[in-house]
Design brief:
Blueprint lengths: L3 H4 L3 H7 L4 E4 L2 E11 L26 E6 L3 E7 L5 E11 L1 H8 L11 H8 L15 E4 L7 E4 L13 E4 L11
Antiparallel strand pairs: 1-2, 1-6, 2-5, 2-8, 3-4, 4-5, 7-8
Helix pairs in contact: 3-4
The chain binds a DNA duplex through strand 3, strand 4 and helix 4.
Length: about 180
DNA sequence: AACTGGATCGTCT
DNA sequence: GACGATCCAGTTG
């Protein structure tokens, strides 16, 4: 299990180490293949203008979930690191509970089940009920990688500020990314 | 393959 | 009152 100490470090140190980690919610999930880092100095981050009701979890204890709703439709899952910083989980390679994920996402190819932050949240049935939950106890489980992964870095996706900041981390060559890297 | 617009609503200005 | 750390379907090339 990945415990609080793992997350109580600089967000740029933690983010690449999440590639290959198995994320499960109620036993359903897969291997993390794409993440993005956000911190308080970053104009693209929800924490940039300080604590609010929505981003409260981002300023809480490390090792907890920060979930928010975007565009009135989708949910996105983050892992909180040091206060004001978090890592957006953007894509996974499905490994466990494929039937449950297909039930929630529809009869899609496996590579499209979790290939984006909103898709991943839908596949795992994540909503605001998970906001603020600890990542080292049920319903969550985080298991360390059993192989090493080649991590590639590049600019983040879908933002309008901090566009050049290369804080996107992906498993190089993975077929399960939200978008190919560069 | 690349781009466009629509869906839909909580949060902050 | 505008906008977003998105997704999908439709159109165009």
């Amino acid at each position: 299990m990945l415990t609080r100490d793992f997350f109580d470090r600089p967000v740029l140190e933690v983010a690449p180490e999440l590639i290959g980690v198995e994320l499960l919610l109620e036993g359903v999930g897969g291997l993390i293949v794409e993440v993005e880092a956000y911190d308080q100095s970053d104009p693209a981050s929800h924490s940039f203008r300080g604590p609010t009701l929505r981003n409260a979890a981002m300023f809480g204890a490390p090792g907890h979930a920060y979930v928010y709703k975007i565009y009135g439709i989708h949910y996105c899952l983050n892992f909180v690191c040091k206060p004001g910083s978090a890592i957006l989980i953007r894509a996974m390679e499905p490994t466990k509970g494929l039937a449950a994920m297909h039930q929630r996402r529809g009869p899609l190819p496996d590579r499209q089940l979790c290939s984006g932050p909103g898709k991943l949240a839908q596949a795992l049935a994540i909503d605001l009920n998970q906001n603020g939950l600890s990542l080292d106890e049920p319903p969550f489980a985080l298991l360390p990688p059993d192989q090493s992964h080649d991590v590639a870095t590049g600019p983040r996706i879908g933002i309008t500020k901090g566009v050049e900041t290369p804080w996107r981390f992906v498993s190089r060559g993975s077929r399960f990314l939200s978008k190919p890297m560069r």
